[in-house]
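quick one before i forget lol
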Amino acid sequence: MKEDPDIVLTTADIAWIASIISVGCVLGSILAGRVMDLIGRRTTVIVLAPFLLTGWLIIALAPNAPVILLGRMICGTATAFLYCASPVYCSEVPEARLRGSLGLMPSLFLTFGVVLSYMAGAFFSWRISCYICCIPIILMFIVLWLVPESPYWYLLKGKTRECKESLRWLRGPRYDFSAELEEMEAKITSVGRKVEYRELWRPRTRRPFLISLFMATLQQVSGGNILIVFTGLIFISAGIENHRMAVVSTGVVQIVFTIVCLMAVDRVGRRPLIIASTCIIGLSNTLLGFYYLMSNVYGIQWPSWVPLTTILTAIAGFCLGCRAMPWLLSSELFNTTIRSTANSANIFYNRTLNVIILQVYPFYEEAFGAHAVFFTFGSLSLFCSFITYFIVPETKGKTLEEIQEYFESPRPGSRNQGYERVEGN
């Protein structure tokens, strides 16, 4: 866009174009939880598809920056429903042993979308790129008509027959899901079907809610979203000549390490991946800060492969856990009745923090230098890695009902005791 003679962009315009999608997401999150409880998880995603398509078309045809912002705002509002419904659907549909890998599918396809936009931007004009980004929306709209609604949602609405049909489609005609259905019904009966926001602060929900907010904070203060949203500008400022192909290479790294995360999550577990992820991106951001300090403050030029390798390593670390795990845990930690509302509240907080960071970044860099930015992100990531070890439980291999039992039981006397309760049978 900055190279388009018809579009004049200031620093404030760039900050708003990057962040206004999160502003829309904040607004949409206020209604997302209630809507997906009202019409269903799958139906919510189907309904939002035309709004996403409209947003992209407005951007593609925009004559100036304000119209671009309007299109981004529409996309952001629709994205709130997508962020809320997709992780919940992907956590409620699979069996416990597959929930980690299948629950990360939204993050994997989010990565594919980012890479698609990178490649479209590298080889086509930004307007053509917008048309290309309409293709996944059309495919999503078509494919979702072929799959059933979440069995948990059917049960929440008292539709036992439809719940059985959904489970039969998902598990196969010969699979005996009677025990699974009985456990689901018992848990919904125990927690009730009425949704209230004050439920988030009751003892059985307060701890998972605080953990989900911490995970959202970890995701944003790691700096990974800054590296992904401002990739091209960061490569240019770091002195990398072929910045377009460097941007495409970051897309490849995102795909590879998101797949690694997806394959490892049900083997290694959630918490080890989060700790490894925050350590990698923390150390990489710190090294990138030293590079900018040497280059911009002391005039000592390091080879261009240093910032390129450092940025790629930071993005790899981000995709290994920080990017996807907060969404997965947010969809796992809550009981069925409050799951949608909790996800909606978490998205509101996540996107609000995202807006603040994306808005502040360009001005913070101008005022204090890029080295200060990445030193800050690096130190915060390492601090979050330390906190994760003590407060985030392991949910690998546990049913949603077992996770709920863990939080609803009296608080364990020690961290290890709580960890064993979730890990053990």
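fyi Residues 412-425 have pLDDT under 50 and may be disordered.
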